[in-house]
Amino acid sequence: MWPKLPFRLLSRTSGFRLALRSLALSLAGAVLVFAIIHHAAETSWRDQIDGAVAGALSDIRSDIQNNKQSLSWNVQQTLAEGGGLFYGAFSPSGAWLAGNLHINGPAALGWTGYKTLHRNDGFLLARRVTAIRGIAQKFPNGDTLVIAADASALQALSKLIARSFLAVFGTIMALGLLSGYLTANSALSRIDHFANTIREIMEGDLSRRIEISRSGDEFDRLAASMNAMLQRIQELMENLKQVTNDISHDLRSPLARLREHLELSRPRFTGPEADAMFDEALAQIDQALGIFSAMLQIAEIEAGARRSRFAPVQLSPLLESIAESYEPSFTAAGIEIETAIAPELMLSGDKALLTQLVANLLDNIILHAQNTTIAIIRAARHGAQVRITISDNGCGIPAGEHSRAVQRFVRLDAARNQPGNGLGLALALAITGLHGGQMQLEDHQPGLTVYIDLPMKS
Predict the structure, then answer these.
(1) Which CATH number does 307-455 carry?
(2) What's the pTM?
(3) Contact (CB, 8 A) for 347 and 310
(4) Could you give the percent of the chain with pLDDT greater than 70?
(5) What is the DSSP string of 66-82?
(6) Interatomic CA distance for residues 356 and 433, integer angstroms
(7) Which of 6, 24, 184, 350 sits most deeply, having the most CB atoms within 10 A of its CB?
(8) Does domain 218-302 have CATH number 2.40.128.20?
C-alpha cells in the first residue's frame, strides 16, 4: 500500500509532469477525434436534408411552370400528396399564404441560402420538432417560398456527440490524473526510501544498503550501482579506520614505555638543564599519547559502540556542575562565566561523553579565545530538541574556517602557538553525532557561538 504523500510534493515530480503531458496529448487527440466525428456526421445529415429540400423546390418550380397556377395553390397540392417536408408560402409583404410552416414574415423574407432554425427562432410546428433546416426561394411576382425539413435528429445527434465527448473527456482526465498520481507516488516513495537509506548512511551506518525490488526497473539498476559504490566506500573507510586504530594502538605502547623509562632515568641526572630536558620530553610524549587517545576515542564513538551505554541523563544539573567546576579556571584566566540553563532538561545519552563534549568547548575558550572576558553557557528546549549554546566574546573563528575547524588535526593560524592537538572540536562533533544531534559554529560578533542540538530521545 502506497504512503499518502502531499499533492504539492507529488505535483513537482517528473513522473507526474510526464503523466500530465501524456494526458494533455490524449485530451488533444480526443478533441480532434470528436471534432472529426461531429463534422462528418453533421455534414452527412445536412447534405441529406439539403438534397431533399432542393429536390422539393425543383419539383414546385417545375409544377408552377407547367400548370401556371399560383404558388399557394401548388403548395397546397404538394402538401396533399404528403412527403414529410414543411412548406410556407408568403406574400411580398410577408403575410402567410399557405403551407404547414408558420414563421414570422420578416424571417421568411430575410431568409437567404440554407439555414437551420431552432424552436426559439420563432416558428410554429409540432412539439416533437425542435429544429428545421431549409431554403427560401423568391419568385418573380414577389411571393416567397420556404421549404424545410425536420432537423431534430441532426440537433439530437449534435447533443449526443457533445455529451459523449464530455463523458470521454472527463473519463480520460480522471484516469490520466489517477495514473499520474499513482506513478508519481510510486516513484516518490522509492526516492524517499533512497533518501532515508542515504540519510542513515550519512549518520554513520555504513552497513545500510538500498533495497532492490524484483521489477528490474531503472530504480533497481540505480540501487544496484549505488550499493556497489557504498560497499566500496565502506571497505575503504573500514580500512582507513583500521589503519588509524592500528597506528594509534601500536604506538601508544612504545610511547608509554618510553615515558616510563624517562621517569625511571630522571633521578640519574641532576641539574636545571636536565630537569628542563626531561620536562620537555615528557610533555611531548604526553601530547602524543593524548593525540592517540583522542583518535582511538573518536574511532570508538564513530563506530557507535558507546550507544549501548545510553541512559537517561539529567542535563540541567550536569551543565550546572560543569560550569561550577570550570569557574576557578576561567577566573584564573580573567574570564567571567555565566549560565542560563532551563530546569529539568533530560535526554538519553552517555553522561561521560556529554561531559567531555561541553568540557572540550570550554577548554577551547580558555586555550584559544584570546582577549575573552566572558563565556556564556545556555541550554533550553528547542522544539523536540535540547539546544546547548556556548559562546564567548574572544577572537572567534573566521566564518570561512568554520567547516574546516571541526576537522581532525586542523589548527588555525591563530592557535598554532597554543597547546592542543586539533582534535577537540572533531571529538565534540563526533560525540554530537553519536547522540543524533548537530553542531553548528556561528560568529558571535565578537567571538564564537557553538550551537549543539540534541534530540530529547536519542
Answers:
(1) 3.30.565.10
(2) 0.48
(3) no
(4) 87
(5) HH---HHHHHHHHHHH-
(6) 14
(7) 184
(8) no
Sign of the CA dihedral running 166, 167, 169, 173? positive
Please state, in angstroms and rounded to a whole number, the distance separating the CA atoms of residues 142 and 60.
Answer: 16
- Round to whole Å and give the CA distance between 64 and 78: 11
Report how far residue 182's alpha carbon sits from residue 161's, in angstroms, rounded to the nearest whole number: 31
CA atoms within 13 A on the CB side of 231: 8
Between 351-368 and 424-434, two packed helices, what is the crossing angle to 10 degrees? Answer: 150
How many helices and strands (H and E) does the chain possess?
11, 14
Question: pLDDT tens across 270-290, in order?
Answer: 778 888 888 888 877 777 777
Place of cell 540553563: 341
Q: What's the order of all strands across the beta sheet hosting 448-455?
A: 336-341, 374-382, 385-392, 448-455, 438-443
What cell does 338 get? 555565566
Neighbours of 270 (CB within 10 A): 9
Residue 344 CB neighbours (<10 A): 9
d(CA 440, CA 365): 16
Q: Where are the alpha helices (DSSP H) in 266-314?
A: 272-302
pLDDT single digits (tens) 149-196:
888 777 777 778 788 888 887 888 888 778 777 777 777 777 888 888
SS3 153: helix
The letter for the amino acid at 236 is: L
Find residue 163's DSSP bridge partners. none
- Sequence letter at residue 335: I
Residues in a beta bridge with 96: 90
Q: What is the pLDDT of residue 211?
A: 83
